[in-house]
Amino acid sequence: MPKTxxxxxxxxxxxxxxxxxxxxxxxxxxxxxxxxLSATEIIVTLFFxxxxxxxxxxxxxxxxxxILSKGHCCPVLYAVMAEFGYCPxxxxxxxxxxxxxxxxxxxxxxxxxxxxxxxxxxxGLSLGIGMALAARLDKSPTRAYVLLGDGEIQEGxxxxxxxxxxxxxxxxxxxxxxxxxxxxxxxxxxxMPLEPLEDKWRAFGWHVxxxxxxxxxSLQKAFAExxxxxxxxxxxxxHTIKGKGVSFMENNxxxxxxxxxxxxxxxxxxxxx
Amino acid sequence: xPVKAKYELKLGAATREAFxxxxxxxxxxxxxxxVLDADLSKSTYTAEFSKxxxxxxxxxxxxEANMVAIGSGLAxxxxxxxxxxxxxxxxxxxxxxxxxxxxxxxxxxxxxGTHSGISIGExxxxxxxxxxxxxxxxxxxxxxxCPADEISMKALVKAAxxxxxxxxIRAGRAKAPVVYPAxxxxxxGKAIELAEGTDVTxxxxxxxxxxSIRAAEILDGEGIxxxxxxxxxxxxxxxxxxxxxxxxxxxxxVAEEHLIDSGLGVRVAQVAAESHPAVMxxxxxxxxxxxxxxxxxxxxxxxLRAKNVADAxxxxxxxxxx
Lengths: 273, 322
Known about the structure:
The complex is a heterodimer of chains A (273) and B (322).
Chain A: H1 7-28, H2 33-38, H3 40-50, E1 65-68, H4 74-83, H5 124-137, E2 144-149, H6 156-167, E3 173-179, E4 182-183, E5 186-187, H7 188-191, H8 197-203, E6 207-212, H9 216-228, E7 234-239, H10 262-271
Parallel strand pairs in A: 1-2, 2-3, 3-7, 6-7
Antiparallel strand pairs in A: 4-5
Chain B: H1 3-6, E1 11-14, H2 15-29, E2 33-37, H3 41-44, H4 47-52, E3 57-59, H5 64-76, E4 80-86, H6 87-92, H7 95-103, E5 110-114, H8 132-137, E6 143-145, H9 150-162, E7 167-170, E8 175-177, E9 192-195, E10 200-204, H10 208-221, E11 226-230, E12 233-235, H11 239-249, E13 251-259, H12 264-275, E14 279-285, H13 295-301, H14 306-321
Parallel strand pairs in B: 2-3, 2-4, 4-5, 5-7, 6-7, 10-11, 10-13, 13-14
Antiparallel strand pairs in B: 1-8, 6-12, 9-11
C-alpha cells in the first residue's frame, strides 16, 4: 500500500486496520483490543506518512525507528507492517497461535523488521534512546519514535530514560503517550494518577505537545513540530479513547485485555464497515 | 610438571583495571565500540575510555536499568556497547533489561560487572556480588566470562567484542596475581589447563585460580598431583575439559568467589553427572552474606584460600579412595 499524507486516506486506512485488529484478536481468543484501537491513528500516521522507511530494504541504515514500548498492543502494529510487506498479511489471523510469526508480544526473532522485542513495560524509551544516540554518532538523519502506554509510564525506568534524553538534548527522539486513561486494573486516575503529566515531561527537559490522538491532521502537525524542535526530545501526549471505533469497547476497562466473542466481533465489524 | 617453577603469581593489576585498558585499545581500533557507565566510571576504569573517546562514552547517572536498555538500543543500531557498573548493580538492577532487551532478542550487548565477589572488601555485603554468575548464567544465550588476571581479562574483553551476541564479564576490585604470560592465547569456551595432574582436578575461576595453583603446590609437597584448570568461560562451559578431568582424575574440586549452590560448581557437577561422574568437593560462599573487612581478611574468614582448596582436595581424594 502506498504512503499518503491525505488525512481522509489515512483515516480510511485506520478504519481498515481496526477491522484487522478485531478479526485477529477474535480468532486468537485472547489479546488486548482496547489499546490497539486507541493507538491506531498514531501508528497509521507514522508508518503511512511520517516515517522514512523502505519495505524493499527493511534494515536500511538511515530508516526511522518505531518501538512499540506498549508491546501488548502489537495487533495494530502487525496489521500496519503487513500492509508494507514486512510480515505476511495472509497470516495475520494466526496471532498468538503456536508457530505463528505473530507472537503475543513483539518478537524480533519471528519478525526481523520489528525494531525491538517488547512486552515487559517500561523499556522502549531506553531502547529508543540507544537508537537515537547511534544515529547521532553516525550523523544519520534517523529519528526514533517510541509509543508508550499511559499506565506504562508508571514504571520508574521511563523516568530514568526521560532524564537521560532531556539532559542529552536528543532531538531525534520522539515519544508518544497513548493517554487512553485506562489500564488493566481500571482507570489510570484511580490506579496511579499521572497528572500533571505535561509538567512532568517539561521538568525533565522535554518539548511537550498535547494532541487529540484520533485527529490525523493534529498528529501530522505534532510530528512535524517534533521534527523541527532542536536540542530537546519531544513527547506527544495523545489524548485517546480506549477501544476507539467500537461503541461497546470505548472507555470500557473490560476490553483492555479481553478478546471479543464472535458475536461481539461481528457487531464491531459492522460499526467499522 | 613442577608447579612452582612455572608460576610466580606476582600481584598484578585488578581485572577491572585491565578491563579499562582493554576498552581503550578496542576504542582505538574499532569505532563501533561505545561505553556506558552509571556514575562509577572511576571505579570501573571506564573513565580512561571516556577521556580518550568522549563522544563514544555515555554517562547514564545512577540508573542501571536505563543504562542496560540504552546499550541494547545502541547494539540494535550496529554499535558494540559495553555497559559497566559494579556487578551487584548492573546485574541486579539491570537484570530485567538484560533478560528482555538483550538475552531474549539476542542483542550484541556486553555487560561488565566489576567489584564482584567478597574481595571488594570494606564496602560490605550490599556491594558484594556473590550471585552474579548464577544470574548471568540464567540468561539464555549469554556468554559468561570470569577472567583470573589482567592478561586474561584484556584478551577476553577483546574476544567478547569480536563475538556477536550478549556477553557478561565478571571483574574484581582487588589486585590479582598474574597467572599468564603476556602472549597467552584465549578462546571463549576453551578452558586452560595450568598444571598437569592425575590424582585430583582443581577447577577454578577468577581470583580462585591463583589460589588453586597455590593449592596444587601445597598438594605437590604431599605427593598429590593436582591438575589445575582455569574455567574463564563459565558459559558455555568447556564440557570436554570437565569430562576429561572427571575421567582421568576421578576427583574434582571447584573453587569460586561465589555462592556455592549456584555458581561454577553446580555447572561443573552437571557436566560431570552427564559425562563421567566423579567425587566432587566445592569451595565457595555458603548460603550467607559476608561483611565489611579487608579483602584478604574476608577471603581468609570465608574460606576462599589455597589452604581451603587443598583441604577440599584431600577430602575428595579420601572419598575417591574409600
